[in-house]
Amino acid sequence: MRRQNIASEIGISRPLLNRYLSILEDIGLICLLPNYYRSVRQQIASDKKVFFTSTNLVLSILGIKSLPDFAFPDFKGHVFENVAFNELRGKNDEMFYWKRKNKELDFIGISTSGFHAYEIKQSDKVNIREKLIYETYAQELKATSFTMVNGWQKLIEI
């Protein structure tokens, strides 16, 4: 979720939200993921996505005690993406997301093995046309690999 959306949803000013998020990041409860740009200056100025460093914390906040209780369709995609983020940040030295106008990739990971692009979908069903679009974005970025994570089983495999 992006910071600009969070401030309006919880009814506080953006500067106050930024202060709270900075504290949460400093104590290691969240990561603020920048938009990938080749320029470090643009990355710093970019809007950040917020991810919890613990999926258990997310589930606890939502009041979910077990996966069968996971009856919050509005949050399933966010939780799934957060789980993927936590898995991928352990495999990459740096993590970003990538968004330009109507184009977006959920994660960009940079590691000693290369520059990796990831698209995360909760559904087990793969739309081949959609996958080709995301692969094109990865090629545009000159990624050394592209992975589309679709469904819980595929998430376990990464």
What would a concise description of this structure say?
This protein is α+β, with helices and mostly antiparallel strands.
Account of the protein in words:
The chain is of the alpha+beta class and 158 residues long. It has one domain. It is built from seven helices and six strands. The protein has helices spanning 3-10, 14-26, 40-45, 55-61, 73-89, 128-140, 151-157; strands at residues 30-34, 48-52, 94-100, 103-111, 114-121, 145-150. Strands 3-4-5-6 form a four-stranded mixed sheet, sandwiched between helices. It has a two-stranded antiparallel sheet with strand order 1-2. Strand 4 and strand 5 form a beta hairpin. Helix 1 (3-10) packs across helix 2 (14-26). The radius of gyration is 16 Å and the shape is globular. The mean pLDDT is 87.
Tell me the layout of helices and strands:
Layout: H1 3-10, H2 14-26, E1 30-34, H3 40-45, E2 48-52, H4 55-61, H5 73-89, E3 94-100, E4 103-111, E5 114-121, H6 128-140, E6 145-150, H7 151-157
Parallel strand pairs: 5-6
Antiparallel strand pairs: 1-2, 3-4, 4-5
Q: What is the helix/strand order?
A: HHEHEHHEEEHEH
Q: Going across the major beta sheet, what is the strand order?
A: 3-4-5-6
Structural class of the helices, strands and pairings? alpha+beta
Backbone CA Rg: 16 Å
Shape: globular
